[in-house]
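Lab notebook, bench 4. We co-purified these components, and the gel suggests they stay together. Before we commit to crystallization screens, I want a quick structural picture of the whole thing.
Request: model the full complex, all chains together.
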Amino acid sequence: MLFLIIKRILLGFITLFIVSIITFVGTEVLPGDACTTYLERQAFGEQLEACYRRLGLNVPAYERYVSWALNAIQGDFGYSLSGEMPIKEVLGPRIKNSLVLASAAIFIGIPIALILGIITALWRDKLPDVAISTVTIFAMTIPEFISATLLILIIAIWLEWLPGIVIVPTDVSFLELLPNIILPVVAIAMIMTAHMARMVRSSVIQVMASEYVQMAILKGVPYWKMVFKHVLPNALLPAINVVALTIAWLLGGVVVTEVVFNYPGLGRLVIESISNRDLPTVQALAIILASIYVSINLLADLLTLMLNPRLKTLQIRK
Amino acid sequence: MKLDNIYKEEKKSAVAKLSEIIITMASRPSGLIGLSILVFHIILAFISPYIAPHDFKAIDPTLMLQAPSAEYWFGTDDLGRDVFTRTILGGRTALTITFFGSLIALLWGGLLGIFCGLVGGKIDDVVMRIVDAFLSIPWILAMLLIVSLLGTSTEVLIPALGFFYGKGIVRVARAATHDVIAKDFIVSAKARGHSNFSIIWNEIIPNVRDAILVEGAMRWSWMLLGFSSLSFLGFGVSPPTPDWGLMISNARGLMSFAYWAVIAPIVGLSSLIIGINLTADAFAKALGIDRSTKAPV
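Here is the predicted assembly.
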């Protein structure tokens, strides 16, 4: 059990290590570098040399990688190009804002997804299922930027209930952020809920068809007792991993949603830093987003391990 | 002569099998709707240049933001271009790029996955670690890096999307290969002394083909989502190419006055994505593969 946990954590670190190499190489081969972008037309001779020295770009790539990685482990990602601010300070409020957005969406989304998934599974192919499933297919497949745009058009422009875009500074307090955050949260929660509801549905259906549930029915266990005691615990366990993967996958969707609502989070920073060729920030963002993905997955694995006594003695092959 | 006959019979049965699958898909309402939408979009993509009533790039300042009328069915946009023309043309680039992108993803992802599943051991471990690492980079960040590195021409986007969306197929193909690898017919093929290539081609591919095809169909809709998100963010095809993502992003700022310019491309893109999704779902069901418990990675 302990060995298994340690192994999973180690694998996570190896993954992050490879990610850091991929992004380092990826940003390294981008045409132009930090200095040519920063100096634009003055990028020659003395000034270029001085800039290279200042940013430490005059040493070989692998040496730069090692020093960058050593600093990054301590949370120091160097200086961003455009603002000439430490990236740490740029990231701080952005991470907080994105975290508020994502956790609000998750806390709203998970309970609704559970309820919808269970309802659709128990009334499979009946009216509630057909109605809810149709809606979830729409919510799930339509791109984030379309559902976000439609939300703005209907709720903010036509009905004028809520502000359509976020026009607050990056480091605003939570209470001021609140009315601005509702529409982005709804946009993200909608897609996430739809994905998870579908997975819960098929998981419950699978368990309902299993032999021990058939046995319970034959034994005359009351329907709702059977659902809560035999079906749900077994159905929700495998859903944890899938839910984690969905949340991680939605990191990309969060980026798009933040751009649509002009929300000052990590996602908009991704777009801004890539447009500005702010490579140090891009590297930092890649590592941070990948760490979020890896830790969500790790957390889900550990949770499954802890909740499922059968797995404690088993070696999981992944 | 005899061999020739067998070959013909197999070929016939493949066509029969395909039409059987299509009939099964169309027998469910959701499959029928999905197939019809998809076929409609494909036909539209082929004929739209011939039926477009106006020039998609003709700018006319006197016709800015006109409401829908008999002449301009879906109104005009901020540059006075006909929204109907641009909407029916708007899916061509997306459909072409993502279709060929998915083919590339299917090919390299499927073959690498089968290979890893077959050989196992150290090579498998290393490849899967790298695939995991690529999976943990958010798709949007990776795609943005690729297009800012290589540009946004069709020749770049097709292989880039194909490469990036193939990594998930590696996992599916590998898992499917693991399922068949221990079966008797593989063991006996090995015992007969067949080469790895022959085992992959004659024994494994026919058995994992369905799972990989279904996965590829799903990738197609995700790739379309990714591609149009890129266009929307301004990192996809460049103006004045009519493209739904780009049109939505352009018309969005003015949607309080001219909602028609944003609604038309929204309907186009949403219906295509829903059509592909429903078709892929029906395809999976017709082949007896349950993929509803899988996360979109």
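The CA atoms of residues 232 and 246 of chain B lie 5 Å apart. Worth comparing against the SEC data before the next meeting. The radius of gyration of chain B is 23 Å.
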